[in-house]
Amino acid sequence: MLIVITGGTKGIGRATAIKFAQNKYDIALCSRNADDASTFAAELAALYSVKTLGMGADLSIKSDILAFGNAVLQKWENVDILVNNAGIFLAGPIFEEPDGHLEKMMETNLYSAYHLTRLLIGSLKNTGNGQIFNMCSIASFMAYPNGGSYSITKFALLGFSKVLRAELMGQNVKVTAVMPGATWSASWDGAPFPEERLMRAEEIASILFDTAQLHPTAVVEEIIIRPLLGDL
Ligand SMILES: NC(=O)c1ccc[n+]([C@@H]2O[C@H](COP(=O)([O-])OP(=O)(O)OC[C@H]3O[C@@H](n4cnc5c(N)ncnc54)[C@H](OP(=O)(O)O)[C@@H]3O)[C@@H](O)[C@H]2O)c1
């Protein structure tokens, strides 16, 4: 069994890679930092005796998306699970954020998922029980101050998920939109909250793992999970 995780070296992606490797899935992951990706993939292979691929790829660039996807297809015939997780958060209200924020986040948060899914869909169908997770956000259905263009891109990613679900119904590929609230990760470094105020990335990873174990006749279409004390 293979899981492909974009942005798999930190935060939710990293926790997901560990959870699935512990359960004997092969892991293919990428990040912009090539050293981080290859070192982490080698660690997972050594610790859990699974096959791994860790590749440097900037998924805001279409040629890098295709290079990563093709490297996966060269190494494995079937993809069981695809987690479109890579994403960046550039804060700011839309009238004040620098020019280019929307484009950069569209490329990273939406187009990466679109292009990689198109490339890997054949190998997901091959398994007869493929699963796609799109890492959306509470910001996919709720606008909030300073969310700006990030929220626009996450609304779009939820839209992509719904379209995928409709198009793949009856084709043995499940589609799940994951909408977490604040989850501790590198992107929260320096935030003025105690770590305990946020969810742990491991909880999101566990939910993905449990969801992926459901019988082929059932799909979880949407997951909303928040810190117990509410949004930040
Ligand atoms: N943490 C939260 O509170 C939260 C809440 C809701 C939704 N989410 C979503 O969950 C996902 C993961 O968030 P996170 O907080 O775990 O993020 P994170 O800790 O910042 O990690 C992001 C991961 O993605 C990689 N990455 C970033 N840009 C990339 C690019 N252009 N190409 C390839 N890899 C890239 C990073 O590695 P490099 O830096 O080396 O590229 C890293 O491995 C994101 O889509 C985020 O929007 C997060």
Spell out the blueprint of helices and strands.
Layout: E1 2-6, H1 11-22, E2 26-31, H2 34-48, E3 52-56, H3 62-75, E4 81-84, H4 101-126, E5 130-135, H5 148-168, E6 173-180, H6 201-212, E7 222-225
Parallel strand pairs: 1-2, 1-4, 2-3, 4-5, 5-6, 6-7
Residues 6-13, 30-33, 36, 57-60, 85-89, 108, 135, 137, 180, 182-183, 185-187 line the site of NADP nicotinamide-adenine-dinucleotide phosphate (NAP).
**Average pLDDT over all residues:** 97
Number of helices: 6
Per CATH, the class reads Alpha Beta
How many structurally independent domains? 1
CATH architecture: 3-Layer(aba) Sandwich
CATH topology: Rossmann fold
Shape: globular
Distance between the termini: 37 Å
CATH homologous superfamily name? Answer: NAD(P)-binding Rossmann-like Domain
Rg, alpha carbons: 17 Å
How can the largest sheet be summarized?
7 strands, parallel
Ions, cofactors and other bound molecules: NADP nicotinamide-adenine-dinucleotide phosphate
Percent helix, as a range, is 40-55%
* Biggest sheet strand line-up: 3-2-1-4-5-6-7
Tell how many strands the DSSP assignment holds.
7
- Secondary structure class reads alpha/beta
Order of helices and strands: EHEHEHEHEHEHE
Q: Report the uncertain regions.
A: none
Q: Strand content of the residues, in percent?
A: 15-25%
